[in-house]
Structures are given as structure tokens and as C-alpha cells.
Amino acid sequence: MKLEIITPEASLFKGEANNVTLPGLDGVFQVLNNHAPIISSLKNGEVIFELSGDQAEAEMSSLLVQTGSKVSVSIKGGVAELNNNRLVILAE
Fold first, then answer.
1. What is the pLDDT of residues 57-82, one digit of tens each?
2. Between 1.10.150.450, 3.40.50.1100, 2.60.15.10, 2.40.50.140, what CATH number should domain 2-91 receive?
3. Are 20 and 49 contacting, i.e. CB atoms less than 8 angstroms apart?
């Protein structure tokens, strides 16, 4: 799926991900490729995602922590919208 993580200050990531784990208000949840459309509020926590394929074209911020194919970033809250295999996270 296409993933974009944006903050008021900068774009943190833009690229492909296999799955994304998000800190929802009602608990942590995960979205995979071809997930049904969803909009969710996010709370303080970690966004963790697995890179998909060749990420030579991915734009990554230095705020992201990468361990192998997994990448994580701490957020203070925000909103996530998934539609047509494109996940946009507006985070604080």
C-alpha cells in the first residue's frame, strides 16, 4: 500500500509499506494491503510499518527509526485515513 506520514512541520515518509500498526484511541490496530476503507483518530504512541520491496524511491525523515525492514516513529496523536490502498497519516 502507499503510505504517507505528514506532520505540520514536514513529511516524514512517503513510500510503499506491507503493513502498518497504529495507536488508535481504542487500542493498537493494524492495516494490511487491500484493507477496507477506514478513518481513525490516533493517540500518543508508535506508528510501526514494514517496508515493501525496493525503497530507493521512498522519502524518509531522520526522525524515523529503521530496524531491518521495520520502521517506527513516535507520534503525539493525529488522524489516519485509508482508502484505495493509500494510507495517509496526519500526525503531531
1. 566 766 778 777 889 999 999 999 99
2. 2.60.15.10
3. yes
